[in-house]
Amino acid sequence: MPLEQISERHAQWGHRAAPQRNQHTAEKGVVNMKTIVSFLLAILTTGTAAAAADNPNVLFVAIDDLNDWVGCFGGNPQVKTPNLDTFNAEGGMIMMDAHTAATVCCPSRSALLTGVHAHRTGVYGNRNNLKKAPKAKDLVTLPEYFSKHGYHSLSMGKIFHRHPAPGDKGSKKSDAGQWAFDEYVRTRGFTGPIGKERPVCGLAAFPGDKSYHSKGFDWGPTKGNDETKMLDYHTASWAAEQLKTRNFDKPFFMAIGISKPHLPWYVPQKYFDMYPLDEVQLPKTLVNDLDDILDKKGRPVYKPHTTWRRLEKAGRHKEAVQAYLATITFVDDCVGVLLDGLAQSRYADNTIVMLWGDHGWFLGEKQRYGKTKLWQESCRVPMMVKVPGVTPGSKQCMGVVNLIDMYPTLIELCGLPENPVLDGRSFAKLLHNPDMVWAHPTLTNGCFPGFYRIYDGRYGYISYRQKGAEELYDHHQDSLEWTNLARNPEYSGIKTRLSALVPNVEEPVAPSNQQ
Question: Which of 187, 260, 256 is nearest to 219 (CA)?
């Protein structure tokens, strides 16, 4: 599928800047091709695990709430992400049509880390702890599987969704998935915003609004102008130091979680200064975008999101977009520190890097801010994969993949035994031949039972079973999903084909973390 058909907004945004280095990016090491080719051929041709000492390492990098506003993805022409762009240029292949297993943090991460979809585990929302879900609590998670097969697993930052212990207002007793790693280090470092008034941005909530966004949707500069004091920078620096100084006696599985650009968007002022407010461009939107999404009685299913209405009333959409862009560039600096640490280490030539965002994010599209819905802006995610000596530089792969596919892909690349319970499909072959046709329909769960999206590389079908609502979009003609074709008889065959892939058996919602 041609790149220009992925999103009309990419053309609207204009040409993206060529990859460039910033001050954090160091010269990369030279790949030992003979070594890399040898172990990859052994893995892929024999199908058996090599000796543990010969297996590749894995650097598994999660970025919270990042959409495709990354330079090399083309989602926004104004964004400054030189480190991620350089990573792409040096073999971090872009998976341009990657999608999430669920559109909010906990079910997305629980699905990709267990390899099992939410409708089979009952982990549909942020309050569902997989360790309290009867169908999920005994599943072997991705880091545990690597530990079980000869790897040393270690982690810092957000990988699993954090659940507080009953009655605990802090984080020391919370369940952050520390049980899944051989070595787990809690995050450290925090710089608060300037001033004590909240919200810092001054955007008042509507009367009676008690949603997370009523207080959590906020932005502003931090105290001082130093990114090195920030939590994510500490996390990236810790990981870089491990890579540069430690002599691991086993291959490692290192999982590093970057918490931004999750709300609130508090970053040093210099990142805001990179995006002058009068130059900020807003995403393209349609005034009556929601009018053709109807329930079985012909009534509209959606109305403009409360946060969108607050910003619309205050005329502050550009400020919100500026803050998100600023936070992404801060994240890019953190990623640069981490990737430089790998490049300067003895492990550079023998480490697979898989970098991903847990779901997308709306910045005004569909008259919405945030995530959770099943439209393209929240389902499509940034994913980049580097297999030394295999993935080419400056490459965009158009194959349709899902975050849930990472588990089987990594164990195949590392020569580990197949895990038969996994829902995902390994795309290791696609990494070796990125131009091959790879359009297997992929599933995204909504935040409750009966809410699904099926996507096949061209068509996106959404089923909202409780309301009897359906949506169908042709991404070749309408990548912004402005025209719902579900009631158009010309597309009945396509709708029937995709709707047949919607799960018929659903696990009930798992107990909340406090139950």
Answer: 260
